[in-house]
Amino acid sequence: MNVNMTPFRRLPTLPVWVINSALTAILVGLWPLGRALEQNLNPYYLQILILVGINIMLAVSLNLVNGITGQFSLGHAGFMAVGAYTAGVLLRHYQPEGGAIVPAMLGVLILGGLLAAAAGLIVGIPTLRLQGDYLAIATLGFGEIINVVIINTESVGPFYVGGSAGLHGIPIYANFFWTFGAALFCVVCVWRLAYSNKGKAFAAIREDEIAAGAMGVNTTYYKVAAFVIGAFFAGVAGGVSATWFGNLDPESFRFMRSIEIVAMVVLGGSGSITGAIVAAILLTWLPEQLRAVQEWRLVIYALVLILMMIFRPAGLLGNRELWPVPGRRKPAPPATSDPDSRQRMMAEG
Amino acid sequence: MALLEISNLSVVFGGLKALCDFDLSLEQGELVGLIGPNGAGKTTTFNIVTGVYRPAAGGVRLGGRSIAGLNPYQINHRGIARTFQNIRLFAGMSVLDNVLVGFNQSLRHGFVGTVLRTPRHQREDKRNQDRAMELLAKLGLDDRAMETAHNLPYGDQRRLEIARALATNPKILLLDEPAAGMNPQEKIELAAMIEMIRTQFRVGIWLIEHDMKLVMSICQRITVLDHGQTIAVGTPDQVRADPRVCEAYLGEPT
Amino acid sequence: MDQLIQQLINGLSVGATYALIALGYTMVYGILRLINFAHGEVYMVGAVSSYYLAEWSMGWTHSLWVSLPIVVVGSMVTCAILGFLIEFLAYRPLRDRPRLVVLISAIGVSLLLQNLAQFQAIFGPTPKRFPELIQSTPVLYNAAHTIVLTNLDILSLGLSLGLMVIMTWVVLGTKTGLALRAVSFRFDISMLMGINTGKIISFTFMFGSALAAVAGTIDAIRYDVRPLMGLMPGLKAFVAAVLGGIGSIPGAVVGGLLMGLSETLVKGYLPSAYTGYADAVAFVVLIVILLVRPTGLFGRVAPEKV
Ligand SMILES: Nc1ncnc2c1ncn2[C@@H]1O[C@H](COP(=O)(O)OP(=O)(O)OP(=O)(O)O)[C@@H](O)[C@H]1O
Ligand SMILES: [Mg+2]
Fold first, then answer.
1. Do residues C183 and C195 lie in contact, with contact meaning Cβ atoms separated by under 8 Å?
2. Which residue out of B11, B12, B52 would a mutagenesis test of the C interface target, given it has the greatest number of C Cβ atoms within 10 Å?
3. Does this model's pTM top 0.95?
4. What is the CATH number of the domain that holds A90?
5. Which residue ranges make up each domain of chain C?
6. ipTM surpassing 0.90
7. CA distance B189 to chain A (A)
8. What is the pLDDT of residues A116-137, one digit of tens each?
9. Contacting residues of B for A327, CB less than 8 Å apart
10. Which residue has the least CA distance to atom 1 on ligand 1?
């Protein structure tokens, strides 16, 4: 059989070593770029820029869970809190100086991510047996439990955590480089996972979990994997935000924050990585334009959620990306209705 | 001992005995039919064999090893693949991606390899794409590889389900009403395709089908179910001649 | 012993409001298979509206027997209208969409109400004490005052009980109730049988919202009024509904009372260092039920057909 006769053509892609070198070059380039921005940019815009970076990480990592794998989680802020507190508590305790800062930052961010991932594993294994709205509520519950634990923890051994008063006096080491370096790493990881043969399993679970199982996909493993990977990056994002703001308020990691991240995923288009990035930028930048009327910020998030669901449930980009990806050249029309699910629902009732 | 060996399989839903003491053996390269009126328990049998439901009693053995109680994905790894009566494609994904999911279990690299795009990952991804295209070509779907699955016409969707199942490299293929919704011409092509799959892929095929002409023409043996009871087993001619089968389909003779 | 009895009284009193809220979750879920995420905010609006109604009515009357009915009925009507609007504007356009789409919209409504209430022109972000409509006074007590039943407990238990009786009558004894049961049994078939499902759904939302309004009023009098007050009771009542078996009306009542009891007992008997964890109890309960018996105490099992 002559495969080349078919209309299928692999999209022209660069060799992997070229892409990997280019990504490394970009990562290194972030350092001077960051220095230049920090010296020339109005601190207010720099602040927004950093927030954009943190939110990109959160939105893209949640998108792996909610959008790509289709497991609606409402507990992302809880994992962010784990990472934030890990980084915040350690940096505050050890106060690294000079040459120790870079390895310390790298260490606490990764450790924060790993602890968040561990939390993700503990939360994911029991809850991912649940489906749809039950999963949403259970993850919400776990997120709130994480919050309750933090509020009630004054200190762990020698480390001061702060309890309900929050944690203050964290040294501020995060900058443009750390934020966008981490964001770049997150985006590349999620992208490569989503658009590889192995990662097709995530989307298969979203499309039809029973069929995925019947086709040999270990659905539990992949669901938990998505959850753990998502939690890892949420933890890293938390770590960055801890050492950018210098203080942590446990209230800021409650489920409101999770919903903000969900709004980004929903606005961008569940399953679209570039969509999540665009939405993270929009939903960070837009409310800042209304800073004079701060109360409107969450009202905007709320309206985004409702209006998107009514008029464009597939989000800005649906499950497409901004540019073509191998194997998905013809985008799916937005999933506006799903008569099957209703019938199945009836059958359950 | 046959490749697939089912003995005394029973299942109960609430008070309903959906399947009762079901037996079957299936060899590699065999084509066996399962027929019966609506609600007879045919799909239920498939669901138990593939691990979707747990049996109340009885055993299922594949190649001599029991597979009862395993998860669906484990049963698939052991070598049983299926299609669904009410099509369950990965509707929003491309035709090619649907087949690629079937190759998932054969992948030997981990998540780290995927993220780093190691040479092994690239080799496997490329090889699987070629294998997927080859498979699609055999089932006549290669020119639709980039289309979204739910945009395919009905008949193509059914064939894609078969392609996806074959991608998991099964020893036994279970087809649940593959001809449903097909026109006569498509049914003739389907019969030829099933024959091609049986010989080229050297799988044992177990087929549920309501179209008697199709079943009688291609199956070597047939089991007839009614209300969960096996009412006849035999060659197409034996089954056709069995009075109880007529009765099950047409009601009590008056 | 006295302490235990007192805890049980408190628990039932708190549980009664959870039960009222849980009824709304359960009725909506029974019909639409939707977790009405905004239900906790309806309860909050009930509290806010009763706050304003109390302020207004106490401006011209000193009689509790005039004020209290105005407050209770007024907030019930307000919330019934709100419930109708929420369903009509945010859920009805999504009738045939996947459940998650509706859930996201519901989350949006919840967020919207919370934040609208925080506008100074509407209510403002800071908690406010309820006007001095009723003082908490002991009504029944033993000689040592170790067991006290306050008028607020009586109000809470009495109103809840009365409403549950009315509700049982509506569901079991009226034509609307019959239609409601039919719709929740088979939505599609009821439509074919000529039941106006749209009307039944609106009715369910209005009824459930009115019950939540009463819970809101009781808690407003008992504690205070704040824009985010709906979050925790909303979640706990949801847990109560799941505990009882979501979709089951008696289940919601039993679940609500159990939640109230377990919470007060945990608060009363846990060493004080751990009482901070009392709020986590609800979620632990939720996760345990979902994993062990997802159909709750009174729910039915229905595996997905393949
Ligand atoms: N998950 C389930 N829960 C309860 N009852 C079920 C379930 N699955 C199937 N049944 C019942 O078991 C019986 C057999 O169903 P099954 O789907 O196996 O029939 P079938 O032979 O495939 O019929 P058809 O030709 O219509 O596909 C039916 O009465 C059906 O209602
Ligand atoms: Mg069937």
1. yes
2. B52
3. no
4. 1.10.3470
5. 20-135+150-243
6. yes
7. 19
8. 999 999 999 888 888 777 888 8
9. 94, 96-97, 100, 129, 146
10. C305
